[in-house]
Amino acid sequence: MAILHPTANTTDRTELVPSHEGPNVFPNCSLFSKLLRHARRNRLAIRDVNLSLEKTYGDILSDALTLRSFIATALGSEIILKIEQGEEVFIGILAAGGYEFSVAVLAVLALGAAFVPMTVSVPVKEASYFVTKSRQPLILVSSEVVELGKSITSFVSQRGHPVSTLEILPHLPPTPTYEPLQIVLSANRRLDDNRAGLVIFTSGTTGRPKGAVMRRAYCHEAALAIGEGYDLDHHDVLLHIVPVHHTTGLGTSFFPFLVAGACIEFKRGSFDPAWIWNRWLTGGFTTFSAVPTIFLRLKWYFERELAPKLSADDLNRFVQAANQFRAFMCGSSALPQPVQDFWTDIRGGRPILTRYGATEFPGCLKVPAECGPVPEGCVGLPVPGVELKLSDGDHGELLVRSPYMFAKYLYDDAATLAAHDEEGYFKTGDIVRRNGPFYFIEGRASVDILKSGGYKISALDLERVALGLPYVNEVAIVGVEDEEFGQRVGAILTLKPNSLPGNDLKLEKLRQDMRKELASYKLPTLLRVFGTGELPKGGTGKVQKKILGPELFPSNWREIREVQRWERAKDKGPVEQGGHLIARL
Ligand code: AMP
Fold first, then answer.
1. Which of 69, 134, 433, 562 is the most exposed place for a label (fewest CB within 10 A)?
2. What's the pTM value of the predicted model, to 2 decimals?
3. Whose CA is nearest to atom 18 of ligand 1?
4. Where's the AMP-binding enzyme C-terminal domain (predicted)?
C-alpha cells in the first residue's frame, strides 16, 4: 500500500485558515495579552483628575478598540493596507497625560501603527516639524487642544503635507462597547515586537531634534524590565504628573505601570506643589516618579509654605502623607544630594530610588527597591541584561548595549550609525565613573547638550532659531549650573547694530520671539547681551563655550546687573510659561 507522505511540513496554520481579526480582536502580542488579563480581573487602570473620571482596564481596552475603528476609517484603506503589510505608519498624538492619551496610545498600537506623542505646549512650527518628519497622515487630538490641532494641520497642509485630525473624546462612547469577556486576542501569528511602536523626538548634538524610533517591545518587554526593579504590581497606584511625550513620562511612568496592572492617576496642567502636597494628604498612593526639579520644588514648598505656618501636628500629617509611598523614583538628570537628604530624612531613612537612562536606551542604571544603601551620589547599578563599557577603564564616556535600546533615528541612517561605536554600543555622551558595581554620572562630554528641568535641550537647536531673528548677529547658548533646573539655558548674544531701539534686547522679547518656534521649556532663562560687535573667539576662530559660559555667567550671576533672568511667577499660582518637565504639560 502506498504511503501518503504529507507535503513538506512548512505551512503554518495561519496560511491555511482565514485571518482572525475583527472589531473586538486585539493583535496577538504580549502587551494586549497582559492588559486583557488585568481587564478580566476588573482592575482600575486610569484616574483622570482633570476629566474627573476613573476607568478600568476593561474600559480602556474597549475604548481603544472603538477608537481604533474610527482611526482606520480616517486613515483609509490604502494606509491600512500598508500597516497590514508591515510598513511603518506614524500617527501623532497631541495630548497631555490622561485618559484620552492612554486610549489613543493603545488604539494606535492595536492597529499595528506607531504613535508620536507631542507636547501640548508645542508651537505650531515645531509641531509641524514633528508631523512632517514622521510623515504623519493623522493626528489624534485631546479635547483640551482642539484649536492647536487645527492650527497644526492647516499649517502643515498649506505646505504640501496632507494631514488630518481626529478628536479623541467625542469618539469614546459613554459606556464601553465591549465587556472584557467579549474582547479577544487574535489567533493570527504574533505581531512582530520589532516593529516601530513609537517615536520620541529628542535633542541631539547636531541641531534639530531626532526621532528615536522605539520598537513595540518598548511598551511591554522594556516596560517589564524597567518596572522590575521597583517590584510593581496591581496593588500599585502612581501619581503621574510628568509629560508623556518624554521617555520619563512614557517609558518609566506609563507602560511599566500599565503592564503591571497598576492604577495611574493623571494630573496635567501647570506644576502646582500645593495641589500635590494636598493630594498626598488624601492618600491612596504607593509610588511617585518625577525629575529632580519636582522633588526640589516640593521640598521648597514644605520648607517655605508648610513648615513655618503649621503646628507640629498638622505638619506631621504632611510628613505621614509623604510616607505613604513605598517608593519615590527619580531620573532624567542629577539629583542634588541636599534634595536626596531631605526626602530620605522625612521618609524615615528611605532614599529616593535614582535611575539613569536616556530616550535611546531607557533603564540602564538603577537603584532597585531591594538594594539597600548605596554610596552617596551613586546613580545606580546596571540593569540585568544591559552591557556597559567605559572608554577609559573605570572612567570616561559610558557606552551602552541593551535589549531595550531604540531601533533607529527616523529616516536618518547616518545619525543612527554615528551614534554607535564599532561594537554596536550606543555612545551616551555622558562622562561616568565606576566604583565596583556602583556608577556615578560626572557630566556630559558635549557642551551643546543641556539638561534643564529634566529635558535634554540642544544648544544648536536654539542657536538656529535665535540666528533667524532679525536683530541677532551672533549667539552662543550655554548651560549654567543651577540648583532648581540642574542647568539653566543661558543665551549670549550680539545684536545687529540699530536693529533694536537703543541696541537693547530684553529677555522677555527674546523668549517671546523664540517661542514661535520652540516649546517653552527650551527657551533661554538667562541672557547676556554682548553689544553689537562679535562674540569673543578662540584661536581657531570658534566661540569657546566652555570658557565664555562661566565667564559671562559665573556662579554669582544673580548679583551681576548685566545678566537678565527669567523666573517662574512663583507667587501667582500655576505658571503660564512652564515646560520644564514640571511646568505646563
Ligand atoms: P533624555 O534622552 O532626555 O532622557 O536625556 C538623557 C540624558 O539625561 C542622559 O544622557 C544623561 O545626560 C541625563 N541623565 C539621565 N538620567 C540621569 C541621572 N540620573 N543623573 C544625571 N544625568 C542623567
1. 562
2. 0.92
3. 333
4. 462-542
Over the stretch 522-544, which tens digit does the pLDDT of each residue have? 999 999 999 998 899 887 788 89
| Ligand 1 within 6 A of CB of 64 | no
Q: Ligand 1 mean position to 198 CA, how many Å?
A: 20
For cell 485618559, name the residue.
99
Least confident of 149-158, 176-185, 189-198, 499-508: 499-508
pLDDT tens digit sequence for 271-323:
999 999 999 999 999 999 999 999 999 999 999 999 999 999 999 999 999 99
The whole-number pLDDT of residue 568 equals 77
Decide: 439 and 382 in contact? Cβ < 8 Å.
yes
Amino acid (one-letter) located at 319: V
Contact 242/581 with Cβ under 8 angstroms? yes
- What does 228-258 look like in DSSP terms, one character per residue? HTTT--TT-EEEE-S-TTSHIIIIITTHHHH
Shortest-distance atom of ligand 1 to CA 247? 4
Q: Which CATH number, 3.50.50.60, 3.10.25.10, 3.30.1330.10, 3.40.50.12780, labels domain 237-444?
A: 3.40.50.12780
pLDDT at 574: 34
DSSP state of 495: E
Cell triple for residue 563? 545678566
Q: Give 144's DSSP letter.
A: G
Question: How far, CA to CA in Å, does 257 sit from each of 40, 113, 221, 233, 311?
Answer: 17, 22, 12, 8, 36
d(CA 60, CA 83): 23
Is the shortest distance between the CB of 165 and ligand 1 below 6 Å? no
Mutate to test the pocket of ligand 1, among 328, 337, 356 (most ligand atoms within 8 A of CB): 356
Is 356 touching ligand 1 by the criterion CB < 6 Å? yes
- If you take atom 20 of ligand 1, which residue's CA is the nearest one? 334
Residue of minimum CA distance from atom 7 in ligand 1: 358
Assigned CATH for 449-584: 3.30.300.30
Is the CB of residue 332 below 6 angstroms from any atom belonging to ligand 1?
yes
Q: Given the CA of residue 354, which atom of ligand 1 is nearest to it?
A: 19
Segments of the chain assigned to CATH 3.40.50.12780: 237-444
Residue 118 alpha carbon to ligand 1 centre in Å: 20
